[in-house]
Model the fold of this input.
Amino acid sequence: MKKVFLFLLCLFFFTGCSDYQELSDINIINGIAIGYEDGEYVVSFEIIKNEASDNSSEVTSKVISAKDSNLALAFNEAIKDSDKEAYFKHVHLLIISEEVAKSGIGDVVDYMLRNVKMSTTFYTVITEDSEALINMKVEDDTVSNYIVDLISSNLDRADLNNIDIIVSTILNQRKDIGLPYIEMEEDDKVTLHQIAYFHEDQMKDVIDAKIFNFLYLNKTDIDFLRDETVLNMYKKKVDYEVKKDKVIIKVSGRGSVKAVSSSIDLEKYKSYDEVKEVMNKQIKEEVEEFLEETLSNDSDLTGIKDKYYKKYREEKDNVPYEVQVDIVLSKNGSIYEVIHD
Amino acid sequence: MINKKQYISLSFFLTRIVFLGGGFSLLIGTSKNNLLITSFLGMLLGYFLLYLFYRKGSISKKSILLIAIANLIMVTISTTTLTSTYLLQKSSTMFIMIAFMVTLLYAAFKEVKVIARVGEIVFPISFFITVLATIALIYLVKLDNLFPLFNTNFLQFVEGIIAFAGASLVPNLLLINYKGDLTFKDIGKGYLLGSFTVILIMFFILTIYGYEFASMVRFPEYLILKKIDFSSFVTNVENILVMEWIADIVVGSFVCIKAIKDNTNKYWFALIIITLIIGIELFFNKRYENILLIKKYFSYFNFTLLFFALLGKWQKKKRH
Done:
């Protein structure tokens, strides 16, 4: 009798589903867009439609928007307007408008991290018009999935899809973050060639994504062009040597020749040194240009100041740096000579 | 009495019992980048104090009761908060707490041998999950986040040592009266193993998040588990891996409630449990500021209890 009682007690406590919900009773939020309009936050949800469509394999979505001067209230309004309970654990993408990013994303990341109903693993992107982007028409897919695929193919995934990485970088006063910048073109086409770089929680400007990829992410397969020679970096390593007077950024790696200038003959031993020298110079210039531009805008994406502080416990506004590049030319393709003139 | 293996497993769980929800974010906030050093020194201090208790023999009933009640309150608060925050967001905290208490009460009326056997069975599972989580998190480690060292003042440094020793050692004292013929080597093993795994988890929290972020989030030990991702194949496993903490909490709480049961009569026992449930619901689950307060001072309170226990024993010996 005692065991039966315990069994019933277990049934009562452990199998209760009084507040269960059917999938059709919730709105699965796939993407969120946050913009500004007339001094108010505009929050839009991209909701996956779970009604049966003509073509069952087709994933469709709808967008719901709401406005308020307070971000949390704008979210609440959008949730209310969506007529069902909003489910945020499936969020894949957060789109923030450039205007919001420039005024500071502190409010946004605070809300996203504080809300325990929210997923913490999603990509955050910046774009000029967040509303236009989330309302864009994409064939056979949702906007969020389409942009996530775009990020996956253009940038390395590991470092960019966690809200806690953004928050911990914002909290660290000596290091800054860069986020993918999505550009909309005509005919609902989007591209990802640029990175929005920040100082603390404020966006400063945009910069070409190539060197960002090269320096900070695990992305390889990056091309460098100089005097008609194209070198593809298929393996690379970036090390930092922190000295008392400067930080040395050491870039090393292996390159493969994709195209070669007509003046270079790869049958000759000396030509390899020549190509190596030219490409080392090119990479050094591009890295220096990138650092110069971001650092002049107070954005330290490399975390040079942080590295210096960690070693010498000394806060410096400007830490001198030097870029050293040492690329080995290890693949030259299947032909030695140049066919064209 | 319980055997050596059972003592080690129970000691392992009791060492880790108050760290979930109570210990980690507080210790990180106090010790910052010195966390690993202060925790290691705290472990050594705890090991030395454990030796003193071993040499002195048993602990008074009053001390046992105080330690058991204090730790049970802390653990119940942590369990209820974690469950209601991340797992059962719509369930009432009272319901979560009663479900937890029913399990504990079932154990309270069993012999200590049964609880020890449970600990012995769960120990390899918990240890395996800890190792699995550790392996899964290695690729996220950034050693940079450990530096610069010594970014606290001397007082905070000492506070960190005391807090770790208090949090890890005091629940262990509940077992001292069951030690029987066991040597100190056997008694210390579970404590060292438990402390070592706690320090290992601290290493991951600190190197993955950095102290600024880790000290501002609730349950950083749970949040790091969310980051596990094996080539997009093994993801969202945090609710499986959090079982290591559930094992600590459940087995550790079994010992706490058993200690209360064995050191009071049935009326007092009933009164303590009912007061505990109602008190936690009214003063903690409904008022988060009180949880912050108890989290802040709990380790020091535990450390004070430790000295009372030690002092009480000395006075008793003197009188004899």
In short: Chain A has a mean pLDDT of 85. The radius of gyration of chain A is 25 Å.
